[in-house]
């Protein structure tokens, strides 16, 4: 069984090697790009297996350019090299089979905080996130607490600080948030072969009680309203009788008139 699997694997390898080194086309690509404006990237083909019926360029899953000419070279212009245009650009020659080359556009990590300011409640878990969507992916992420300069945060410290990272994203989790020690600024650093980039996230920690304030506020508001209504209701009853008497005589004209209307309306209801 194992022997047969090895044989199959070897066979596949041999086929692959023959395909790669055999009579297939050679595609030469322009060099990788790391900066500039109006940069032209290109691919040339030699030894095309069939006639060339056109070309197209892909970036990720998006077709960004195509044509139907038979030229043995194709090019694509980048207006600007930055984190948005960085990536792997693939040129295709429409032959049978398709022939493909790749041009790499690389920049240093473009690191941004998912949220510049985060807050958590005391004893909850605080989560700080940084992302980088540039190419190539970040190979090394690190976190620092800014206290008179950056203090590195080691994964697992105090069994409270945990870091989870991949090429696009890093997440710092702080368990059991401490209102004395944890608030402040945190910096995430991302490094790739081109350099590094960083962002700062500030963390605020609210006391458990503070989390209750909005709720207590509403309760207080309701209590005040109920009290006011209660007091007015209580006051109104004895008032109504002298109000009626006032009705006829009018020593203070304007005031009395207003009162009068109010009383009549009230009585009508
Ligand atoms: C493709 O070929 C043209 C000339 O035929 C040459 O000027 C250009 O530099 C070549 N480009 C690449 C990427 O090899
Ligand atoms: C940090 O430690 C946890 C386990 O304690 C692990 O799952 C995680 O991958 C580590 N993160 C990094 C960046 O090493
Ligand atoms: C980066 O994010 C994209 C989607 O946003 C995902 O497809 C890709 O797998 C991620 N790369 C890494 C290295 O995690
Ligand atoms: C973190 O990044 C900043 C700026 O991007 C850089 O100045 C600093 O040296 C980096 N720190 C480390 C330890 O890599």
From TrEMBL:
Annotated Gene Ontology cellular component terms: axon; basolateral plasma membrane; endoplasmic reticulum membrane
SUPFAM superfamilies assigned to the protein according to its UniProt record, in alphabetical order: Immunoglobulin
Residue intervals passing through the bilayer: 211-232
GO molecular function: cell-cell adhesion mediator activity
Intracellular or extracellular location(s): Basolateral cell membrane; Endoplasmic reticulum membrane
InterPro entries: Ig-like_dom, Ig-like_dom_sf, Ig-like_fold, Ig_I-set, Ig_sub
Biological process annotations from GO: axon guidance; dendrite self-avoidance; homophilic cell adhesion via plasma membrane adhesion molecules
Domain of life assignment: Eukaryota
A Pfam entry, by short name: I-set
Ig-like domain ranges (all copies): 25-91, 109-206
Region (Disordered): 238-269
Keyword Cell membrane among UniProt keywords: yes
Keywords, comma-separated and alphabetical: Cell membrane, Disulfide bond, Endoplasmic reticulum, Glycoprotein, Immunoglobulin domain, Membrane, Receptor, Signal, Transmembrane, Transmembrane helix
Name recorded for this polypeptide: Basigin
Organism: Eublepharis macularius (Leopard gecko)
């Amino acid at each position: 069984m194992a022997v047969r699997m090895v044989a199959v694997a070897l066979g596949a390898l041999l086929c692959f090697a023959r395909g790669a080194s055999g009579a297939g086309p050679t595609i030469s690509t322009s060099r990788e790009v790391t900066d500039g404006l109006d940069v032209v990237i290109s691919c040339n083909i030699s030894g095309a297996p069939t006639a060339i019926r056109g070309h197209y360029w892909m970036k990720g899953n998006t077709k960004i350019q195509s044509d139907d000419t038979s030229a043995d070279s194709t090019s694509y212009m980048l207006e600007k090299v930055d984190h948005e245009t960085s990536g792997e650009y693939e040129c295709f020659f429409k032959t049978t089979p398709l022939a493909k080359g790749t041009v790499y556009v690389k920049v240093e990590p473009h690191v941004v905080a998912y949220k510049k300011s985060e807050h958590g409640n005391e004893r909850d878990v605080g989560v700080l996130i940084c992302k980088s969507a540039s190419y190539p992916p970040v190979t090394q992420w690190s976190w620092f607490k800014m206290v008179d300069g950056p203090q590195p945060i080691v994964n697992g410290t105090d069994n409270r600080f945990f870091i989870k990272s991949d090429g696009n994203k890093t997440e710092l989790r702080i368990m059991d948030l401490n209102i004395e020690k944890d608030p402040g600024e945190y910096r995430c650093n991302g490094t790739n072969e081109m350099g590094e980039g960083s962002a700062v996230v500030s963390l605020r920690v609210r006391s458990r009680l503070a989390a209750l304030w909005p709720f207590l506020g509403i309760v207080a508001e309701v209590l005040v309203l109920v009290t006011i209504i209660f007091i007015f209701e209580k006051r109104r009853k004895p008032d109504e009788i002298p109000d009626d008497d006032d009705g006829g005589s009018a020593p203070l004209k304007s005031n009395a008139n207003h009162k009068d209307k109010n009383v009549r309306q009230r009585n009508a209801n």
